[in-house]
Amino acid sequence: MAFLTLDNLSHHYFSEKSYTQALDSISLSINEGEFISLLGPSGCGKSTILSIIAGIISQTTGEVILEEKPLKETSLAIGYMLQQDYLFPWKSVLENIMIGQKINGSITMETKERAQQLLKEVGLPNVANDYPRSLSGGMRQRAALVRTLLTDPKILLLDEPFSALDYQTKLKLEDLVFQLLQAYKKTSILVTHDIGEAIAMSDRIILMASNPGRIAKTFDVPIEIRTITPFEARKHPKYQMLFDRIWKELDKHEKTDE
Ligand SMILES: Nc1ncnc2c1ncn2[C@@H]1O[C@H](COP(=O)(O)OP(=O)(O)OP(=O)(O)O)[C@@H](O)[C@H]1O
């Protein structure tokens, strides 16, 4: 039995003036500890899938099943990391990363120690009492990652978390996130437009097509790439081969959408 199942998900957005079928019959099984990427053209429904899993919106039809139970609303089992870090400027880094526990009234000495430990693990050992304005974009995203991990979610949703960063910072952060999520055996779903990032970080890539948003093809990433860091993966010959296959497939779908 899969850890997380998307069973025949469809979603329609309605407004007074328009109707959009964002998703059509999305079915996907994800194993515990697996890293999946959703890749595809703008508007194919990648973020809509994450919003449904996070319980922010309800699917029109279908089910999300986590550990054999339907997931119907927002849950602490789901952690969400976005392109923007959404750190509160008036709170220190430590206060920001413990915001979930503060809201739940569950801050303990143990939480504080774990927060400090995680900050060390992401290379931010000395910023707990600083304010977000004194941190670089990459440092802020690392703090946002700690905030997400501190609630110990079962599933991590990553919606283009590196896309606002400069290229060098993005590559460094990819390595860090990859290693951390592997160490903590987190099940993760990454939304990205970057074919290279999807190959370098994932076990499996779900290529989507639009109008309506649907799964076009699935690619398994070769084991030789999955067992090395994203930075090293980009230099592997099998990376280039897979890149070319995905590029061709994406091109085919973009042409049919035109
Ligand atoms: N709140 C909304 N109201 C109406 N239509 C929406 C809404 N959110 C998304 N859509 C539409 O649903 C479709 C899927 O959008 P979604 O944002 O999930 O795609 P995406 O693949 O994540 O796009 P991008 O890569 O540009 O972020 C698009 O046609 C979009 O215009």
Structure, explained:
With 258 residues, the protein is of the alpha/beta class. A 6-stranded mixed beta sheet has the order 6-7-8-3-9-10, sandwiched between helices. Strands 2-1-4-5 form a 4-stranded antiparallel beta sheet, with helices on one face. The model has no long low-confidence stretch (mean pLDDT 91). It starts with a strand and ends with a helix. The protein is built from 10 helices and 10 strands. It has helices at residues 46-54, 93-97, 99-104, 109-121, 137-150, 167-183, 195-201, 223-226, 230-233, 237-257, and strands at 4-14, 19-30, 35-39, 61-66, 69-70, 78-81, 155-159, 187-192, 204-209, 214-220. It has a domain at 1-76 and 187-257: P-loop containing nucleotide triphosphate hydrolases (Rossmann fold), CATH 3.40.50. Helix content is 39%, strand content 25%. The longest helix is centred in the C-terminal third of the chain and has 21 residues, at 237-257. The chain is globular and about 55 Å long. The structure holds adenosine-5'-triphosphate. Residues 13, 15, 20, 22, 42-48, 213 line the site of adenosine-5'-triphosphate (ATP).
